[in-house]
Amino acid sequence: MAEKVTVDIGGHTVSLTNLSKVLYPDTGFTKGEVIDYYASIADVLLPHLADRPLTRKRWPNGTSAEPFFEKNAPRGTPEFVRTVFVKEHGDEGIEYVVADSLPTLVWLANLAALELHVPQWRVDESGTPLEADLVVFDLDPGPPADIIDCCNVALALQQLIEADGLTAFPKTSGNKGAQLYVPVQPTSAKNTSAYAKRLAEQLEKALPDLVVASMDKRLRRSKVFIDWSQNNAAKTTIAPYSLRGIDRPTVSTPLTWDEIADARTAADLVFLAADVLGRLASHRELLADMADYAGPLPASTAARVR
After folding, report:
1. Which of 75, 132, 178, 197 has the most neighbouring CB atoms within 10 Å?
2. Is the domain of 109 the same as that of 190?
3. Phi and psi at residue 68, in whole multiples of 5°?
């Protein structure tokens, strides 16, 4: 495999380097294969990144080495890459990358940006932050709890969410846990955080042996932590279809509720890059119409945070 090539993607020149470099030592998965995955998944991934400031987690020396988070657009960012300046972030503002095109996605993959993290809000054409359009429930199992325990919590959360007239969409985190997305009519992150916290605390009371809503890590053993704080406007969540920087090239994968209910072992919900590409042939893009289900948060939530 060539170590340096220049390709034309949509009329833009993208330089690719070290394509044979192994980024996942346990499986031999190379940078070239990372680029190929992101190029192949772009049609379903890009809508989840569009207009959302992107935080990247990069592994230039592979997943056996230390990664680093990157928020600011790096030096040498090509002109075709959209960037937005959010003055409220950091001490002096942050110039974020917005991944809204295939050339940008390939460029990011060439930088070994394996993980793509986005907030629950978008920016407008001028880069001004908009209100949140998603509520996220991040389900994090404390060993020996695993993703099957997360599935049980997800099913309980689904009932509460549907009782509020909203719709939840599940996905794996691509690592040990899971997330639920709830599309909502635009509202403040203060409101979405309050709503997620209320449901997390409600489940903690109902299922005290399984659920914890507290930030205290000492309380999480054998339980599922519902991390409601991911709705803070400064927080981000792993994007659907993003790779994870662990031992194998696993992917944060959208699921059906039947898969949540039927899973019996954690291995049932582990999907590698090749698996996810194969799923698209047999499953529709499960989050494609998620925005169509956006509903208002319960009125009591907004009243509680005024």
Report:
1. 178
2. no
3. -145, 145
In a domain, 125, yes or no: no
pTM score: 0.95
C-alpha closest to that of 131 among 193, 74, 186: 186
126 found inside a domain:
no
What are the distances in angstroms from CA 229 to CA 13, 97, 218, 234? Answer: 40, 23, 17, 10
Burial class of residue 151 (count of CB atoms within 10 Å of its CB; 0-12, 13-18, 19+): buried
What separation in angstroms does the CA of 258 have from each of 37, 241, 263? 26, 19, 8
Q: Which domain holds residue 177?
A: 131-304
Residues in the chain: 306
How many independent structural domains does the chain possess?
2
Q: Are 40 and 150 contained in the same domain?
A: no
pLDDT digits (tens, 9 = 90+) for 260-298: 999 999 999 999 999 999 999 888 899 999 999 999 999
Query: What is the side-by-side order of every strand in the sheet holding 68-70?
Result: 68-70, 55-58, 113-118, 237-238
Compute how many other C-beta atoms are within 10 angstroms of the C-beta atom of residue 61: 12
